[in-house]
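Usage

Read records sequentially. Each one opens with the input sequence:
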Amino acid sequence: MDDHEAMREALAAARLGVEADPNPRVGCLIVPDDGSGPVLGWHRGAGTPHAEVDALSRAGSHARGATAYVTLEPCTHHGRTGPCADRLVAAGVRRVVHAVPDPNPVAAGGAAYLRARGVEVTEGVLQAEAEEVNASWMYAQRTGRPWVVAKMATSLDGRVAAVDGSSRWVTGPAARGDAHRLRARSGAVLVGSGTVVADDPHLTVRRPDGTLADRQPLRVVIGHRPPPRGSRILDTAAGTLQLATHDPVAVLSALAERGVHRALIEGGPTLATAFLRAGLVDEVVAYIAPALLGGGALAIGDLGVATIAEAVRFVPTDVTPLWPDIRVTARPLHRPAISPSERT
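and closes with the structure output:
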């Protein structure tokens, strides 16, 4: 197989990793030169072997003289595990092909390290595809803050609740199931303290059969009012963090310190509005139901827009029917976030 074909195999392995994990998703394909056949490895999350180490352990002695295809530049630092570049050299790998230079200054430098020890290195193979696999992680490394997604479920006229405050359910089962998958991709789920009092949300990820998923995002309550005793968000189904602030910058700083690179705003309108006004929403995911309420709470509050020319506009990146609803994914037009495939 050629370099592009082999890297596609490594990327497929990388996608088996957990997107919400603090570490990037990485895949590695070892292609021996002795005809024994390629061997795949991937990173399963913080504290587990890195993709290169996983693949090398499977390849054994067949790694000597082989080519290793890695979706991210092999690391050179000592974390919970040793440097992958050292392991590749020790295994006798002849050539390393990687897709993306590591943007983390602590871990970067693997390519130069390998070359200095006689390993042939090829860089940038399928870089755009590899960056998309770790889009939010790459963004967090380059900006110092998580990628922020604002999720909303609305009627056609932009309402998230009826006049009497009822909001279950604006959208149907397919949209709600998709929203759980959106949560599962996130390291943290954000909610305002007012919404906790009004709606008592659980904010967990559930499987289609209603059982809790094995991995749960951190539930983050924002505001000075603590959740009432007995609130579902305080149970042991997932971790919960309260941040007694109304400053979106402070919220994202606290999440970055905890290794969160993808944050999901679940509610309510006040919280989403605060992040939008601060220019800190990188993506909107709107589940739109074919219903009209005519009154009740709006999805977004006052953004300070006085004329149509000041509208906060977005570019759709995906429109998916989830019968009877529609999911629209969009990114800001006039405050473009760093593209997942753009180097800074």
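Summary fields computed downstream for this record:
- The chain has a mean pLDDT of 92.
- Residues 3-14 form the longest helix (12 residues).
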